[in-house]
Amino acid sequence: MRTLVEIEQGMSTPSPELVADVKQLAGDVMILGVSGKMGVTLAKLLKNAMIENNLDYQVYGVARFSDPASRAELEDYGIQTIAADFLNQSEMEQLPKIKNIIFMVGYKFGATGNEPYTWAVNSYLPGRICEYFKESRIVAFSTGCVYPLVPVNAGAPSEEMAPDPLGEYAQSCLGRERIFEHFSKENGTKVSIFRLNYAIDLKYGVVSELAKTILADEAVDLTMGHVNVIWQKDACEQAIRCLFVASSPANILNITGPETLSVRWISERLGESLNKEVQFIGTEQETALLSNASKSHELFGYPQTTIREMIDITAEWLLNDGATIDKPTHFQERKGKY
Fold it and tell me: What is the value of pTM for the model shown?
């Protein structure tokens, strides 16, 4: 059984491809929203890739840091942290103007019933970021939720498909993208828009949620019958590498694994690994929220962690009482209400 330390070490060890790309880096990097589910892993990967290249640049991590533990973890790793509320004008204007920005700030869960704040964070704030960091290269995290539900048998949408978001959360995320696109053209800022769908690791994500459902002898809901997933480390590596393909106009990239995966199939494989009988409720619908990431695969290659590896190590982790994060993806949501 892998320990949490071993897993964290593996998650923060950069691939040769990432090390080779980071060799191009010119200047410090600032990660805005670093304290989220992916930010700490991303910061550590970047720091280690810099060390591999003997680069003396600084990695800054900025967030409100409501959880002091994540800030201490980053500081111990050599990441320079800054506490700031991005919607506070004076706090944001105290941030150093760094050459490379990875923007991970967003608001999703709780968006229904808190729509004004959702729009402020997801659509208004990006404009302030674009103005303040107009001379920087920016990777802007977005979501595959900007696409509509599509017929499973017709193929997932690539970047050539026009967005058609369902619900106010997804609409506000398209607003974020449009703001970055506008200022990329207006100011010549080089931008990559990072449409992610869905990142997972042992402690959270689609596979972990399904495994916990099975272990609890609860039925797996098949209403959203198909998904895309990508291992968190692979997604973080691609986010860093997106710095080097940023452009003006903005470069839009879908980021996920290569397969359209059946929720039934994932659950059955998990049942085998967990030695549990799987129960199902509902029926697979003809449509699902999917993304075609062939453009990013052409640039970066396929993600290195396969779905069968994700299934096996997630089952192993949970069977040995591995810790989890109580932040469900709500991947089953079909009406855009988060």
Answer: 0.95
